[in-house]
Amino acid sequence: MPFDASTPTSVAAYMCSDEGAAIARSVLAQSGDASQMVHGGGLTGAARLGPDALHARMVLAEIGNTPIEMACECVAEICRSGADLIVLGGQTDLATYRRLRDAGAREYFNFPVTAEDILAAQKAAPSPALKLVPQVEAPAPAKSPSIAIMGSNGGVGASLLAQNLAFFGSAAKGPDRRVALLDADVQFGTQAIDLDRDGTAGLFEALMAPDRIDETFINATMDHITPRLSLYSNQIGAGQDAASFEPGLGRLIAPLCTSFDVVLTDLPRGQLLGRPELADAIDTLVLLIPAGFSGVNAASRLINRVQTQNPGLRIVPVLSDLRRDAGLSAKDIKTIIGMDVAATLPRCDTVMTRAHRAAKPVVQHQPRGAYAKAVGQIWQAAITTPDPETATSKPLLRRLFG
């Protein structure tokens, strides 16, 4: 449908790619607003301005890589200005189209699109403008990894490692992931205390009704340590029973995986062994093992039990030198447990003491130290999906020749 140039139209464009900027310039030229600039920032940039600053009859914004939940919030904010909002993007699934329209967008166009199509949609009643590639069902989004950190024995630094992995993974100059840290010890969990934070009271409410929480609830009840790291950590009080909250731990991980890029769980041994269903919510178990006979024995028994009950759970063994015990080497431990040791956490008493006094993780206090380097190795080992053929061939050979 051709655009009627006799009807003046004020257009504000917010793009985040060269392709989007080129289309926006064409729209501005055909609408008689060629003198206006194409702004950067995309959909989120337009939303940050607020409805009072958007003086346009039509806002043209590009979604870019913004998650759909956040994109819908931006759409609602922009539409409060009264402007017609048209969203551009590379997403071709029908679910995205419907959710943006339901949030208030006048129309959504996926690339490639012409200025004529956009201006016609602004002038006429909305029509199906999404050019879909024929498909039966849109591919399901990739599930965010769920990683648990646990010690085969007490005092090996599992909680310390969970805390440092969370800060490492969320660091802007590092992986830069949105990370959720869940302290699964509701009786004696220390993550909030170690970071000099108040306990997150919303944790107990989430555990009582984990199937009903959504991203809005999560954002309102978690402690946002940094813009990329959020925490659930609290201890039960007098008169509260941990057994009434613990069954919700496994079911809480799923909605956290929907809202975050990575979910890290500081997991006590008793939780995993007492609640096998909890392992179903975990993709990878980082197991800290001290360099002693009792520790390796406990680790070997625990690995066998986990592999029997939850064969799909991947285990990443880590040697902890925080407890030297008998001083066994990584090679010794590999021989006993039948698995490669991914990394060794070195002893660093002085650095750790200073970090604790400052209520900071070691990776922030000494980012280039030996402990921080080991944390980086463990992060990479835990986050990397193993090759399926390699993962299946090793157990087979072990069964044949072990």
Helix residue percentage: 40-55%
Identify the strand order in the major beta sheet. 8-9-7-10-6-11-12-13
Query: Helical element count?
Result: 18
Largest sheet: 8 strands, mixed
Mean pLDDT value: 85
Oligomer: single chain
Output the radius of gyration: 26 Å
Q: Give the helix/strand class.
A: alpha/beta
How far the N terminus sits from the C terminus, by CA atoms, comes to 72 Å
Q: Give the overall silhouette.
A: elongated
Number of strands: 13
Poorly predicted residue ranges: 1-9, 125-133, 389-402
Strand content: 15-25%
Question: Which helices and strands appear, and what pairs or packs with what?
Answer:
Elements: E1 11-14, H1 18-31, E2 38-39, H2 42-49, E3 58-62, H3 68-79, E4 84-89, H4 94-103, E5 107-110, H5 115-123, E6 146-151, H6 158-170, E7 179-183, H7 191-194, H8 202-208, H9 215-221, E8 223-226, E9 229-232, H10 242-245, H11 249-259, E10 262-266, H12 269-274, E11 284-290, H13 293-309, E12 314-320, H14 330-337, E13 343-345, H15 349-357, H16 362-365, H17 370-383, H18 388-401
Parallel strand pairs: 1-2, 1-3, 3-4, 4-5, 6-10, 6-11, 7-9, 7-10, 11-12, 12-13
Antiparallel strand pairs: 8-9
